[in-house]
């Protein structure tokens, strides 16, 4: 025969309808409510738990087929899907309790030691450390040493915090480290609140001052400085993480977390990275753009690249040319590289007055091609001048004019209102 303990708590049978289960719960909840009988708080918790399971079709089906063990383990025999995280619900009801007066087994409800997995250790928090690296470091690879201060289990007391046998279970929380209080929201509605025990600081135990470890003073951990060697591989990227498993802070009974190094790329003065590619910005004169050029680029590994452009090929403003296989290396395959893109800015001469004075503009026209003929000028026309203006300053002046215009409009409007009031 299947497990019937939850049905027995509510005094109903396995074949009872949901309405009958709810009526039985309301009757028992009123009878054992902690506000009337504080000594019955554990019994009230058991009643609430039984009602929670038996009124949820999925949880009830799992319980009927596999019993309480399946509820704790998250489903049985592949049958109770959707039970993931139900152990948290049990821990929420009973906080890893030590059954007092429940009459159904010690060490938690029905003998289950809730409040943690039976075989899986909790893992501590991970520690994040940013590491600033240059583009040269990401191109060539680098090994950095990082000094880390972390908590380790006290070797003097082996993480006990005091002399052997000196730890006493906290009476305020019965060793759970948390206290559970119930608050009535309305008829038949209760809110359960968990908070750390004030008596033991959430530890579930206490040690007298005279018995505390002289090295860790009862904290169970001490500080240790550790040097980590961080290997930055060629081709790594901004934001990439390097993990040192188990090098985080240690705590008794908890698996140490990881130390995670997060790479932060510093901005480069010459190159800009775009994935596997590099971008290099180069300004050249109009003469170079028309007649060819050569210049040197010092790469991220200190190599000198000679870039040449033969005469006869014109470089336009904003033109982009590529040097193949001179970009960033690919991580774990450094012989595969992206490309180096060079973006050109052509700097034009400020004026050609000297050429006009020496009649060399005609020669320049002959080389570059004649200008189109001037347009036919109508009898009625307006001649305007071209001036140099700062576009930002021009926008600001327009904004100021609009501001003054609004003031003038507002003043005129206000004046009209005053005249109208005077006529009334």
What are its keywords?
about 425 residues; alpha+beta; four-stranded mixed sheet; three-stranded mixed sheet; 17 strands; about 25% strand; disordered C terminus
Element layout with pairings:
Layout: H1 5-10, H2 18-31, H3 41-54, H4 57-66, H5 68-73, H6 86-94, E1 127-133, H7 135-140, E2 142-153, E3 168-169, E4 178-186, E5 189-196, E6 205-206, E7 221-232, E8 241-244, E9 259-265, E10 271-274, E11 277-285, H8 286-291, E12 293-298, E13 304-309, E14 320-323, E15 329-330, E16 333-337, E17 340-347, H9 353-357, H10 361-368, H11 391-423
What would you say this structure looks like, in words?
With 424 residues, the protein is of the alpha+beta class. The protein has eleven helices and 17 strands. It has helices at 5-10, 18-31, 41-54, 57-66, 68-73, 86-94, 135-140, 286-291, 353-357, 361-368, 391-423; strands spanning 127-133, 142-153, 168-169, 178-186, 189-196, 205-206, 221-232, 241-244, 259-265, 271-274, 277-285, 293-298, 304-309, 320-323, 329-330, 333-337, 340-347. The strands form seven sheets. Strands 10-11-17-14 form a four-stranded mixed beta sheet. A three-stranded mixed beta sheet has the order 1-9-8. Strands 2-7 form a two-stranded antiparallel sheet. β15 and β16 (333-337) form a beta hairpin.
């Amino acid at each position: 025969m299947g497990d019937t303990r939850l049905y027995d708590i509510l005094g109903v049978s396995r074949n009872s309808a949901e309405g009958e289960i709810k009526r039985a719960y309301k009757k028992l909840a009123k009878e054992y409510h902690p506000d009337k009988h504080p000594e019955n708080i554990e019994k009230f918790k058991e009643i609430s738990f039984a009602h929670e399971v038996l009124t949820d079709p999925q949880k009830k089906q799992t319980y009927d087929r596999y019993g309480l063990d399946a509820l704790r383990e998250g489903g049985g025999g592949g049958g109770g899907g959707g039970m993931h995280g139900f152990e948290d619900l049990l821990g929420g009801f009973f906080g890893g309790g030590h059954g007092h007066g429940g009459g159904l087994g010690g060490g938690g409800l029905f003998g289950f030691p809730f409040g943690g997995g039976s075989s899986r250790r909790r893992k501590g928090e991970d520690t994040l450390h940013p590491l600033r690296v240059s583009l040269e470091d990401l191109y060539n690879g680098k090994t950095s040493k990082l000094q880390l201060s972390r908590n380790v289990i006290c070797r003097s007391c082996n993480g006990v915090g005091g002399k052997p046998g000196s730890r006493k279970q906290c009476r305020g929380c019965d060793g759970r480290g948390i206290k559970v209080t119930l608050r009535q929201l309305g008829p038949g509605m209760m809110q359960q609140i968990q908070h750390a025990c004030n008596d033991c600081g959430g530890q579930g135990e206490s040690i007298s001052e005279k018995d505390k470890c002289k090295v860790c003073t009862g904290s169970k951990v001490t500080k240790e400085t550790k040097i980590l060697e961080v290997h930055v591989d060629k081709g790594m990227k901004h934001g990439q993480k390097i993990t040192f498993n188990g090098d985080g802070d240690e705590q008794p009974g908890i698996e140490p977390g990881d130390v995670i190094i997060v790479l932060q790329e510093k901005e480069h003065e010459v190159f800009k990275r775009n994935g596997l590619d590099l971008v290099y910005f180069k300004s050249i004169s109009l003469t170079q753009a028309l007649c060819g050029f050569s210049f040197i680029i010092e790469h991220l590994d200190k190599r000198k690249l000679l870039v040449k452009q033969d005469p006869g090929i014109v470089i336009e403003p904003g033109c982009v040319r590529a040097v193949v296989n001179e970009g960033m290396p690919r991580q774990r395959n450094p012989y595969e590289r992206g490309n180096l893109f060079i973006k050109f800015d052509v700097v034009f001469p400020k004026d050609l007055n000297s050429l006009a004075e020496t009649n060399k503009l005609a020669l320049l026209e002959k080389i570059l091609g004649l200008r189109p003929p001037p347009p036919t000028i109508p009898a009625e026309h307006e001649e305007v001048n071209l001036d140099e203006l700062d576009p930002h300053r021009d926008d600001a002046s327009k904004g100021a004019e609009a501001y003054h215009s609004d003031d003038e409009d507002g003043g005129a409007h206000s004046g009209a209102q005053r005249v109208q009031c005077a006529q009334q």
